[in-house]
Design a protein that fits this description.
5 helices, Four Helix Bundle (Hemerythrin (Met), subunit A), about 180 residues, mainly alpha
Length: about 180
């Protein structure tokens, strides 16, 4: 069987490789931004129907669902946990505790992407006001987290889901790569 070559357009989402000589905080922020941009690149150039394409049964995971999920994750860790803001979930969970991962027919990528970018902007703003050793505000009596731990967790969360995004994108149009 002949090898199929898939032409890919140059990505337009800017992504900067993290420095190999930066300090701790700069490295954490660069790696987190790198992974944020990676997820955006995985979604680039697809239409709404493609972004809704689920992986493979029994999973219903989609790129649109991942973007919504990461908006919720950013919101949870930076706004609720780090800053102690009282904000409801971005996607109501009344009937579905994983509603962020399960977009409705009315949900669009444009809205999900805008919500995700707004949460990233707020996360950057909140993080800038803290040192890596600052502890989170916890109203539930649980152990606090320092900003360093939150950064590391967010990098792990994105890296794991970017692996899912790789597989989803390859299933949709055969595109592979970073």
């Amino acid at each position: 069987m002949p090898c199929m070559i898939i032409e890919q357009n140059e990505p337009t989402v800017p992504r900067v490789d993290p420095s190999t000589t930066s300090g701790e905080r700069e490295a954490l922020e660069q790696w987190l931004d790198f992974h944020r941009a990676t997820l955006a690149r995985k979604c680039e150039g697809l239409d709404d129907a493609q972004l809704r394409t689920p992986s493979a049964p029994p999973s219903d995971l989609s790129l649109l669902g991942l973007v919504r999920h990461m908006a919720e994750v950013e919101r949870g860790w930076f706004r609720r946990t780090l800053a102690g803001e009282t904000v409801p979930p971005a996607y109501p969970r009344d009937e579905d505790p994983d509603s962020d991962l399960h977009p409705s027919e009315d949900d669009t990528y444009e809205a999900a992407f805008a919500a995700w970018q707004a949460e990233i902007a707020r996360a950057r703003e909140l993080a800038a006001a803290h040192t890596l050793d600052d502890l989170s505000v916890r109203r539930d009596g649980a152990e606090p987290y320092n900003l360093r731990w939150i950064y590391l967790h967010m990098i792990e969360e994105y890296a794991r889901h970017n692996g899912h995004a790789d597989l989803l994108r390859e299933r949709i149009d055969g595109a592979t790569g970073d």
